[in-house]
Design a protein that fits this description.
7-stranded mixed beta sheet; 179 residues
Length: 179
């Protein structure tokens, strides 16, 4: 095993933190396909949209539609209460909104079953994300979960599969399958 591979295997585990932000390159890439007008779970420091809900503003009690036209919702929620967030995404999608949710991709959890049940598109990220504010790359894999109209499907999922693997997202993603 190379020295680099040994170092990768010896990384300390990340501590889950609710204020880790989405890497700007990942958000900008998704912004090519979505018209984000609301960041539904943010802080003043890591908000991706002009309109955002903080923990104090409580996104669970708010209507996520912004303005008369609406727009798409960005969500990188704290990695707790997954079921509650997923159910809120589903509720808002039923009202006609499109929500793009970055979340952990762990098939062994009961909340992943809810992602599978309610999301219209699931895009697994081939690698681990370096979140803003985190000391290291995440110790878990992530996915993009789309609720409502799946704007990624025409570009990455023309076959209409339920789950798609996204590749080629480096430099803000590390690891994934080996060639």
């Amino acid at each position: 095993m190379s020295n680099q591979a040994q170092k990768l295997g010896q990384e300390q585990k990340s501590v889950p933190r609710s204020d880790w932000g989405t890497p700007d390159p990942l958000y900008q890439w998704l912004s090519k396909y979505f018209d984000f007008t609301l960041d539904a779970a943010a802080s003043k420091k890591n908000a991706k949209c002009k309109k955002y809900y903080t923990k104090k503003k409580n996104a669970f009690r708010k209507n996520w539609k912004v303005g008369a036209k609406g727009g798409d919702v960005w969500l990188n929620h704290p990695y707790v209460d997954h079921k509650k967030w997923i159910k809120k995404c589903n509720k808002e999608a039923k009202r006609g909104l499109t929500i793009c949710n970055l979340g952990p991709a762990d098939f062994t959890t009961d909340y992943f079953e809810l992602y599978y049940k309610y999301a219209t598109g699931i895009y697994l990220i081939n690698g681990r994300i370096k979140f803003v504010g985190a000391a290291q790359f995440a110790t878990f894999f992530s996915g993009i979960y789309v609720f409502g109209y799946d704007k990624l499907a025409p570009h990455f999922n023309p076959e209409g599969e339920k789950i798609v693997l996204l590749t080629g997202l480096s430099p803000y993603v590390r690891g994934g399958s080996r060639k």
